[in-house]
Specification:
The protein is of the alpha+beta class and 163 residues long. 16% of the residues lie in helices and 38% in strands. Strand 1 and strand 2 form a beta hairpin.
């Protein structure tokens, strides 16, 4: 089984995991605190296809569970910033491939360009993250497993995806 991983940094505010920080290792942006990242995300997986979806909307999560077969609820593994009020964050793009059902979350760059060229549709930036390690941030990893993108905000889930 082929599993590719890339580090994303996430923030921690006391015990809560808070904020996707870096979708890919980029340098050059001043470090920001992850403390403004307080909007929790829900991560769901559709067992029939292994597709996953991350959303900050409880209504969207419920609709995906009830109508689209996203039965595996991985809970709320991290939090993000819904807007860039501090000016220190970068947009996290959601790209969806309607042919495969895969959804990827990443910053702009070569991988986003490659995915768009491969049929992924850019659905905008549903949330924001710090572009690099910052005060209170911890890593979140982006994986491609069985052709589907996944975010792993906890060590246990990273182990599960690579095991």
């Amino acid at each position: 089984m082929s599993v590719r991983a890339r580090v994303l940094n996430i923030g921690v505010a006391s015990v809560l995991l808070v904020g996707v920080v870096a979708m890919s290792p980029h340098v050059g942006v001043a470090a920001a605190s992850c403390s403004p990242m307080t909007t929790r995300v829900t991560e769901l997986v559709k067992p029939s296809t292994a597709a996953s979806y991350v959303t900050t909307s409880v209504a969207v999560a419920n609709r995906l569970k009830l109508r689209q077969g996203y039965e595996d609820d991985l809970g709320m593994p991290f939090a993000v910033a819904p807007t860039n009020t501090t000016g220190d964050f970068v947009p996290v793009k959601r790209l969806h491939n309607p042919s495969t059902g895969d959804t990827a979350w990443l910053r702009r760059g070569a991988e986003a360009d490659r995915l768009r060229a491969g049929g992924y549709v850019d659905q905008g930036a549903p949330f924001y993250a710090s572009p690099n390690s910052a005060s209170g941030c911890v890593p979140v990893f982006s994986f491609v497993r069985r052709g589907m993108h996944r975010l792993a905000g906890t060590p246990a889930y990273r182990t599960q995806l690579t095991g």
